[in-house]
Please model this.
Amino acid sequence: MNMISKKLCMIGDFGVGKTSLIRRYVDRQFSDQYLSTVGVKISRKLMTDPPLQLLIWDIEGSTKFKAIAPAYLQGAKGAIVVADVTRPETIEHVSDHVDHFLTINPQSFVAIALNKADLLKDEQVNELIESVQLANSPQVIVTRSTSAKTGVSVDQVFELLSQYLIQ
Model:
């Protein structure tokens, strides 16, 4: 059986946990040492079900979503837009990141990860999830609270998006 390769971009403001989510998913590791990504770092994850090679582009964070080089986003079949539940401004930027990505890749799919959910009470996190539901965009397939630290829902976000990437 041939292995299918798909490009997936991690997008969001700086410091929201994009790199930590990738490390948790790909390497099964977590570090609370913050290292800012410069430019882009590409990780690879081989999946068996579905048979898929995910090329995960960890794109440097920016509060100016337009500053993300469109060249980094081009050709991506999916994106995970990440926000930090403890920083409301990062949640406010989610729809801008989604719109920017879908302008460049209109046939792609997006998952939203509200990261660092271990730092808030469940009720607070559930309210935030409801506040970012983007009903006007059918390409946004899921909004989940995640924790790169504990691993909660990290695999599910990547795996659910992967199901859409091979359709």
